[in-house]
């Protein structure tokens, strides 16, 4: 092309190169484009606010101080060099950060870590905890809230801390068995659900009970997920009674508020949204933000009953036609979704 009079890729207008880069849903593709030439590097920002496709990260650092991650856009596995010890594990993610726990028994350190730019935010340790999920962006909201199981009790809990504070976590514990309960934090409120019992809505600052309503009733009990999806509180119940992937079934409910009264309303679909479920909770994105990916789908983990070594499948369920498929080339271990951010 250059021999026929073309001036080459580097002569494309800077604003056009930038516009093209915003249509790339994978952060890895943007980084590769920045390597084309100096002009492209100056025109393409890797910290643009437009969403990138989520990555699925393994829950621990491997022996080479690397974290494997699965890319939806390429259906392939890559690795990030982490420079964190092997005894570091994590599950919760938000705003490009992972909540890390480094255990050197009997001590434990807790910190937020961005695996792409190395930014680390130390946090006071709240004591040993189990499954966790970060539900707010510490850089945008200056608040971190987590929920999980308390050692020795199995109850669910949530904690709030402002990064940089040296005070202990402000922790709230509910006497609900973790398997039967779930919790999210959204705009100053805790939403706590006990399966087939009640849902509490509580002011996270004062502890005042805003409302108590009946929990959604579902016979699908293999897992439950409460999450904030584009400003709505959803509960997702998942079940697979036969062990066959194609028989995965979901019950979904949305929390509605009318004149201060709350109620759970069963829904059949999620429109243009995609849900990404972790072991607890998860998050959503809209298909208009991620070109080429269809909405009304749920991405989730499922144990492969055909394997005896607890192999994990990474799956996509299409709510429109009810089909479920396993994503190809996945490494088969448990992990957590993260929306990658460099800036």
UniProtKB/TrEMBL annotation:
InterPro entries: F-box-like_dom_sf (IPR036047), F-box_dom (IPR001810), KIB1-4_b-propeller (IPR005174). Residues 70-305 form the KIB1-4 beta-propeller domain. Residues 9-45 form the F-box domain. Pfam families: Beta-prop_KIB1-4, F-box. It comes from the Eukaryota. This is F-box protein. It comes from Rhynchospora pubera.
